[in-house]
Amino acid sequence: MKPSLSKDEINxxxxxxxxxxxxxxxxxxPAQTGARLKAFIDAGYHGHMDWFPETFxxxxxxxxxxxxxxxxILLSMNYGPEVNPLDILEKREKAAISVYAKNRDYHDIIKGxxxxxxxxxxxxxxxKVKVFVDTAPLMEKPLAQQAGLGWQGKHTNxxxxxxxxxxxxxxxxxxxxxEADEPETDHCGNCRACLDICPTxxxxxxxxxxxxxxxxxxxxxxxxxxxxxxxxxxxxxxYGCDDCLAVCPWNKFAAExxxxxxxxxxxxxxxxxxxxxxxxxxxxxxxxxxxxxKRIGRSRFIRNVLIAIGNSQNKNMAAxxxxxxxxxxxxxxxxxxxxxSQLANEKDFLLQCDGHISxxxxxxxxxxxxxxxxxxxxxxxxx
Length: 383
Prior knowledge:
By secondary structure, the protein is of the alpha+beta class. Among the domains are: 7-90 and 102-174, no CATH class; 272-377, no CATH class. The protein has 18 helices and 8 strands. The strands form 3 sheets. It has a 4-stranded antiparallel β-sheet with strand order 1-2-7-4, sandwiched between helices. Strands 3-8 form a two-stranded parallel ribbon. A two-stranded antiparallel sheet has the order 5-6. Helix 14 runs parallel beside helix 16 (330-343), helix 16 (330-343) runs parallel beside helix 18 (363-377) and helix 17 (346-356) packs antiparallel against helix 18. It starts with 6 loop residues before the first helix and ends in a 6-residue tail after the last helix.
């Protein structure tokens, strides 16, 4: 018979590996959690994230995904920023990048360490183990609340009394039974700071998120042109959005991340939009190697940068974006047209339009030229 491994030993190993918390719960969750997920999908709030309805049955409970699972071990890692992420939003010529994406991909960092813990459990107990970091049909946030790591706030993200809203989550499922820890209760009270700050009004109600209106979804998951109604509200956010996290009052207890690989790279703290928009595919891949940003590809990235440039009010960048009117990617061409329409005068815009519209074949790009002409013709401002 293999020797046992205590919860205290697992907790000690987790802390040694840089985790902020480690808690245990049953590998099952109440039926109402699945019901809330179904309501989210039925309302269409998942947008183009088709994996939600496709994996709904398995996602309702860990035991639906692995029927031998008895215990879920939830681990958190603090990634608290050095400065307030809201400060850069006033610097219109700089790019605002979500705190979590300013260095290495957290999936890679956390998964390797979860495997170390899982291997220790397996070797000491003979138990079966599986590790997950945000890539499987596993509802980690409800499990984390059930395990006592924090609670799901009104912005739907996990909040901790010790670390505020800045936590990555990872989980280990095992067929070994461990005593469950006490769940955490909701401490949001009457606060609605996270709901009120959202630039695109992505929260239909407390604890509900319409991803289709969320800047994180729009800049990361959404393919093609970003809907016109959200472009002004995006401001200079080129990858994700931290507003609802950053404004949470519980962040007054948050500590700066101690893991070096989660601290912001110097070149991603306040990068210039004018430099980023010039990135060709090769340089884009080189710059963001090992970063979660690399996964959205140059097309979506430059699209986002162009929206930020259009919102910059810096008319000197008009000539810069005009250089992308003939980019091979229609999403980039369309983004360049919108940005140019926000920065150029009517005469220059119409000259550029006359010079390019006759040779343009893509319907979405043609639509951007027509929208730009309407913008000037009607004296309107987009957004």
